[in-house]
Amino acid sequence: MRNIFPCLTRAVAALGLALVLPAGAAEIEAESGDTIAPVVELYTSEGCSSCPPADAWISRLGETLGKGLDAVPLAFHVDYWNYLGWEDPFSQPGFTDRQRMLGALNRQRSIYTPEFLVSGRETRGTRAVVKAIQSANASDAAVKVRLVAALAGTGDIAADVRVSGDTGDSELYLAVYENDITRRIGGGENHGRTLHYDFVVRYFRRVALLDREGHMHTHTIPVEAGWNTANLGLAVLVMDRRSSGTRQALSTPLDRLFADGSG
């Protein structure tokens, strides 16, 4: 099994956060860097014949992270292709709503797949995506993010997040994504194809509005039966409330939480 989780996290010696965990529970600790790691959003669908090359490219992007590039890739599967005879099981209406919102911010005449956005801005072409990542990586981050993740007693994911710095007028999001998914497509434009995905968003929530005093937030994410826990990752996103630009972000694999088979 491939391990393509991005190397965007750094161990934190002591965060002093307030998780209440079972005795002996494993924890994952992560901290953002000094420069901005932008969120790269791909809007895609199993029902779209133009999407597989973009799906493959975001997987390759994941393999390069930590080797001169820092970013948090996320693949949002939309639902507006489902009418063509194949329902994408990863699609959610909320992901389509988010793409529409970002399309309006970018003054797009329409939304489409595949579409890349880097730090909330429509970005056409993979070379432009890389340049946008590099530009963000060259910018000092005004926001710091620290994360402790663990399994709660219920088997769900408990995330404790501390955000500090210039956090005014920002939103805090948590996303769970899954890597190394292979699917045989039985209908729609990709009928008969076997497709491979990484960074597929399984859970995405805005968990807080931030003020200029920073923020500490504890959130529990329910683990669903269809998720392959060996391939899950958790992303923490601090985004400008008005532009959806990335103030700071980090991601970390979660496989160690489930290594004992409890997941």
Give a quick precis of the structure.
With 263 residues, the protein is of the alpha+beta class. It is built from 3 helices and 14 strands.
Report on this model:
14% of the residues lie in helices and 35% in strands. A hairpin with a 2-residue loop joins strand 4 and strand 5. The protein contains 3 helices and 14 strands. A 4-stranded antiparallel sheet has the order 1-6-7-12, with no helix packed on it. The chain has a 4-stranded mixed sheet with strand order 3-2-4-5, sandwiched between helices. It is of the alpha+beta class. The chain has helices at residues 52-64, 93-105, 126-137, and strands at residues 27-31, 39-44, 72-77, 115-118, 121-122, 143-151, 157-165, 170-178, 181-184, 194-197, 200-210, 215-221, 232-240, 246-253. The model is unreliable at 1-21 (pLDDT under 50). The relative contact order is 0.23.
